[in-house]
Specification:
The structure holds 2 protein chains of 2 kinds. Chain A is mostly helical. Helix content of chain A is 54%, strand content 8%. By secondary structure, chain B is of the alpha+beta class. The radius of gyration of chain B is 37 Å and the shape is globular. The chains are: A mainly alpha, B alpha+beta.
Chain lengths: 116, 871
């Protein structure tokens, strides 16, 4: 998967944002709430770092604004919604594969055997 | 949120705020503390995010802030510490000179006068159209000027005595202070208010008491700054005056350091029994122009006024015009102004020369770093980036040099201050904001001159060309710039050197003039007898006794007395030779005169040329009236004859009791070395010289004159403690007051010229040396091919001399501009003096020869193989 390799590995924040958006379009606050929930509080996104990551992912083309969906029309506070692009989904898959193979390596490691 | 980059905020501001709101709301649901923590966390992450966002934006801009430039520049300047230090020092010496001289120029010449609307103040002199000299004005003429002039809002006057000091006495050691006798509207014209009490007003003239206004310093010294000073009595030359007010110390009119002003009733005097001729010259007039009236208009207006007066009073006013000068010019003085501008021009030239030198050093630095810059350019640094870094370097250099220059300049002013106190308005000389601005301005200009050009040159070069020429170190455009620098530097040096050469030669020819006296080891002090000495006989007895007693002091060789030693007077006396018809005096030269006590001639070393000197018996009441005349007088009135035995009398009197000339003495240049001697008559001082209440005591000493001052003072105090001895100093100090400016000027100019020569010579050497070094490879190749070392040397030297010659030609053309400035300053030498210019040319030729010969010899003496294989 040559095209996705250059985006890997993802930072944990990027991974969790992509994961949250893969469930459906969300606005900034919804993303950070979901990320915190998914990671059980391990990944926290303040507003600034949240949009820093959103900007970076948008620039890379992994996510995009969901402004063509009338059901997600701005709520009057100018909030926008984001969703994962097909490239973003592909990068997610590749990242999950990479993580799985890393995980397999770790599981086969004699010193770490037995780790869940 | 401002810490975040603007581009990011434009994209996400709304979302960010909304997410913050929502996040805060959710956190608050979990409790107040959670809300606070949320806010703190949100704030804490800002700097990191901001930094990461900036790093992310456009990659290498991150490495391009000014901070980085400054760090790079510092590293590069430190890497070439020698060159950097040389550049800073050279430039600082140039800036320092400008700061020093500009401080003086500003304080003395440019600084506005402290009075209200000083531009509207002017001094008016009577202009004697026959002699073309300025002169004082009579009260009747002043009245008419004041009434008729349309250009002036009002005029005031002050009395113009020979001596501007008065004795303050009464309950203290008598002191002499500078005082002005002024008209009642004097302070109103200047726009000066009293800090305590009041200034004069016109009704004061009706009062019986004599009134005085004092300066703050006198108020402090004399009255301890107490408000009781108002109404207190002050004994001025023996007359009680009532103090009515205190004015600030900066009021330095009529003369510098005036500490006391008395009210002068010119109108009363003019109406008095003596009356006053329109010919008299007792007053100087101060005028305030109407708003918006130019000086030219005022001059035209006064021309009409004096023209009308000339036709109304042809007997007295036919030869009298008016001269109107801005007060500022009058205070600073033409001579001083010209000298300071000249010095300023000199330091600007020095600065230009040092800038050229530093420009060259910048080129050398650029050349040495050519490879480094080319490499960075090849790696993607843009030309603007490289130029910006070079500019940063020169700005840093300039700031260092400017700061150091400012320090140098200030300490120079401090060091010079002992020499500067004779200048007008010298009290305020020091580092002023304008001088700091001058330092900034010239540093900026210089850094532009030396920094930008080479920076653009280096940055404008195609990287590959630069990489390819690394071994050769210079490109043709470098060489052209360098040649231009050599020519420019030589030209500037020629201008400065020739100007200085002229002034030094002028000072020499001035010093070579015989002043007509021998002033070494002569002490002078002025005695002033108050009203206690009512008769001429009493005064004569006192003066004679002082001379006798002081001449008996140990280490005193001889003593004498004179009315006024070396006083600069406008010759205004006339005589009539016995046998001449009356009414001829207007056609004859005017003269000056002094009454002297016999020991005077020997004490100041005047030489007797014919006849005899004055003797004690000459002054007796019944003795024949006799006089000794100077050579100029003998030549003017008895050309080709022996003046001894000839007789004359003052004014237009007939010769029934005429004065007989008994001797001729050598001329003394009373008014300064540059002024030709004036016909002068010495008469014996004694009982008959009733008017003589002051005398200059002159002593020839066998020790340093200063060592005898206490003994002389003791003698006088013993005779009468009320008599002050003032203006004590050596005869040279007394004589040299005017000379000191010209001496200081030529000394300073010589210093600057020496600095400029050293800078120009080293600059020339460095430039020519670099030229040869840059051709090392080429010379190596030619030597390897069998070229003759001698021929190459000759070629290098020729090219050096050719550049120098072009510079000399340019410099001589530029020097022609100096002519206007130097005219009137030079004495006994023409501004085109060929010897000076030839010397300057020769000096520079020698420097240029040395500067090209040495590197040429080095280049040809090196093993060609070594040269070729070196990088």
């Amino acid at each position: 998967m040559g095209t996705t390799d250059r985006y890997l590995p993802l930072t944990s924040k990027a991974f969790h944002i992509l994961l949250a958006l893969a469930e459906g379009p969300r606005n900034g606050y919804q993303v950070s709430a979901r990320v915190e929930e998914n990671s059980r509080g391990a990944v926290r996104l303040g507003p600034a770092s949240q949009f820093e990551n959103i900007q970076r992912l948008t620039e890379k083309g992994l996510i995009e604004e969901a402004d063509d969906d009338p059901s997600l029309a701005a709520d009057g506070r100018g909030q926008r919604f984001w969703r994962v692009t097909p490239l973003g989904v592909a990068v997610m898959r590749a990242e999950v594969e990479r993580l799985q193979s890393d995980l397999g390596l770790a599981r086969r490691n004699p010193m770490l055997r037995g780790t869940e | 949120m401002r810490v975040l980059p603007g581009s990011f905020l434009t994209g996400y501001r709304e979302d960010l705020l909304a997410a913050f709101d929502d996040g805060l709301r959710r956190a608050r649901n979990q409790g107040r503390a959670a809300g606070v923590i949320f806010v703190l966390q949100a704030l804490a992450e800002l700097p990191g995010v901001a930094r990461r966002l900036r790093l992310g934006e456009g990659g290498h801009r991150a490495a391009g802030g000014w901070g980085v430039d400054v760090r790079h520049a510092w590293r590069s300047l430190r890497g070439q510490a020698g060159l950097t230090a040389a550049s800073v020092l050279i430039l600082a010496s140039g800036v320092g000179g400008v700061v020093a001289i500009y401080s003086v120029l500003y304080s003395v010449v440019l600084r506005p006068l402290p009075y209200a609307e000083p531009d509207r103040l002017a001094v008016l002199w009577t202009h004697n159209l026959r002699t073309d000299l300025p002169d004082g004005t009579s009260y009747p003429n002043y009245e008419d000027w004041r009434r008729r002039s349309a250009a002036f809002q009002d005029m005031a006057l002050y009395f113009r005595p020979d001596f501007t000091t008065v004795t303050l006495s009464g309950g203290m050691e008598p002191v002499r202070v500078h005082a002005g006798a002024v008209s009642s509207n004097f302070f109103q014209i200047l726009g000066v208010d009293a800090v305590l009490g009041r200034v004069f007003d016109p009704t004061d003239l009706d009062q019986d008491a004599a009134l005085a206004v004092v300066s703050e310093s006198l108020w402090l010294d004399h009255f301890g700054a107490s408000s009781e000073a108002l109404g207190a009595s002050l004994i001025v030359d023996g007359l009680a005056h009532r103090v009515i007010g205190v004015v600030p110390d900066w009021v330095d009119l009529p003369w510098p350091a005036t500490r006391l002003w008395t009210l002068h009733d010119a109108a009363g005097l003019a109406r008095g029994p003596m009356g006053e001729s329109r010919r008299s010259d007792l007053y100087v007039v101060l005028g305030r122009l109407r708003a918006g009236v130019s000086l030219e208009a005022a001059r035209a207006d006064m021309g009409e006024v004096t023209g009308a007066l000339a036709s109304e009073y042809p007997d007295t006013n036919s030869e009298l015009g008016a001269r109107v000068a801005p007060l500022l010019d009058e205070v600073a003085g033409a001579e001083v102004r010209r000298s300071l501008w000249l010095l300023f021009l000199a330091v600007v030239l020095v600065l230009l020369i040092s800038s050229t030198n530093v420009a060259h050093l910048a080129l050398v630095r650029g050349a040495r770093r050519g490879h480094d810059l080319a490499l960075r350019s090849a790696l993607g640094a843009t030309r603007t980036r490289l130029a910006r870094q070079l500019v940063t370097e020169s700005v840093m250099l300039a700031i260092a040099a400017g700061g150091l220059g400012l320090l140098l300049g200030t300490s120079t002013v401090a060091a010079l201050s002992a020499n500067l106190h004779t200048l007008p308005r010298a009290d305020a000389i020091g580092l002023s904001p304008p001088a700091v601005w001058a330092a900034c301005a010239c540093t900026l200009l210089a850094s532009l001159a030396f920094g930008l050009a080479p920076a653009l040159l280096v940055a404008g070069r195609a990287p590959r060309a630069s990489l390819a020429t690394v071994g050769l170190r210079t490109t043709p455009s470098d060489r052209r710039l360098r040649d231009a620098l050599v020519v420019g530097e030589v030209a500037l040096a020629v201008v400065l050197l020739s100007g200085t050469g002229l002034l030094v030669r002028s000072a020499r020819s001035l010093a070579a003039e015989d002043p007509g006296f021998d002033a070494e080891h002569v002490l002078v002090g002025r005695l002033n007898l108050g009203p206690g000495y009512a008769s001429g006989a009493e005064r004569d007895r006192f003066f004679q006794a002082v001379i006798d007693r002081t001449s008996a002091l140990p280490r005193v060789e001889s003593a004498g007395g004179v009315e006024a030693l070396f006083l600069r007077r406008i010759p205004d006396l006339s005589i009539r030779r016995v046998g001449d018809p009356p009414g001829q005096r207007d056609a004859q030269p005017r003269l000056t005169s002094d009454a002297v006590y016999p020991g005077f001639f020997g004490t100041v070393g005047m030489r007797l040329l014919e006849g005899r000197l004055l003797e004690p018996g000459d002054a007796g009441r019944d003795a024949e009236r006799v006089a000794v005349v100077n050579q100029a007088m003998a030549e003017a009135f008895w050309p080709g004859e022996d003046p001894v035995g000839k007789r004359f009398d003052w004014g237009d009197r007939d010769g029934s009791d005429a004065i007989r000339v008994v001797g001729v003495v050598s001329d003394i240049r009373q008014a300064g070395l540059a002024e030709p001697p004036v016909p002068h008559v010495f008469t014996p001082a004694g009982e008959r010289t009733q008017w003589m209440a002051e005398m200059d005591l002159v002593l020839r000493t066998r020790a340093e004159p200063g060592e005898l001052v206490p003994a002389v003072r003791a003698v006088i105090r013993q005779m009468d403690p009320e008599v002050p001895l003032s203006q004590v100093g050596t005869a040279w100090e007394r004589y040299g007051d005017g000379l000191s400016t010209s001496r200081l000027r030529s000394r300073l100019l010589s210093l600057f010229a020496a600095l400029a020569t050293a800078l120009a010579a080293s600059g020339l050497y460095a430039l020519l040396n670099e030229t040869v070094v840059s051709r090392r490879k080429e010379i190596g190749i030619r030597m390897a091919m069998g070229a003759d070392g001698g021929r190459i040397r000759a070629e290098v030297i020729r090219s050096g001399l050719r550049l120098t010659a072009s510079g000399v030609v340019v410099g001589l053309l530029g020097g022609a501009l100096l002519r206007g400035l130097l005219e009137g300053v030079l004495y006994g030498i023409e501004p085109t003096d060929p010897i000076t210019f030839a010397t300057v040319g020769a000096v520079l030729a020698v420097v240029a020869f040395g500067a090209s010969w040495l590197p040429a010899r080095l280049a040809t003496s090196v093993d060609p193989v070594a040269t070729l294989t070196s990088p």
